[in-house]
């Protein structure tokens, strides 16, 4: 198999942005209009909506993102192919 064939087999990455929003707008998930992840329920709902999505990169903006995580039956959990990318050490916090 050629390198070009191998690259064509990989699905295109899906990028989503999440921020701690204070304007009350839900957002569309783009870099210029990130989803609102300011509360546990909002952040967990966004994360749950991508639980079955493979090859997704979730970009978290600066701030603290509270979450209930996964208790074995409820919540969200990281999946194969999912990348969670923060804004830097000490800048983005995922708080369980």
Walk me through the structure.
It is globular, with a radius of gyration of 15 Å. The N and C termini lie far apart (44 Å). Helix content is 18%, strand content 25%. It is an alpha/beta fold and 96 residues long. Strands 2-1-3-5 form a 4-stranded parallel sheet, covered by helices on one side. It has 2 helices and 6 strands; from the N terminus they run H-E-E-H-E-E-E-E.
Name the helix and strand elements from N-terminus to C-terminus, one letter apiece: HEEHEEEE
What fraction of residues sit in β-strands? Answer: 25-35%
What is the number of beta strands? Answer: 6
What is the tally of helical segments? 2
**Stretches with pLDDT under 50, minimum 5 residues:** none
The CA-CA distance between the termini, in Å, is 44 Å
Largest sheet: 4 strands, parallel
Structural class based on helices, strands and sheet pairing: alpha/beta
Q: Helix share of residues?
A: 10-25%
Average of pLDDT: 88
Question: What strand line-up does the widest sheet have?
Answer: 2-1-3-5
Break the fold down into its secondary structure elements and pairings:
Layout: H1 3-9, E1 14-19, E2 35-36, H2 40-49, E3 56-60, E4 63-66, E5 83-85, E6 92-95
Parallel strand pairs: 1-2, 1-3, 3-5, 4-6
Summarize, please.
The chain has two helices and six strands. With 96 residues, it is α/β, with parallel strands linked by helices.
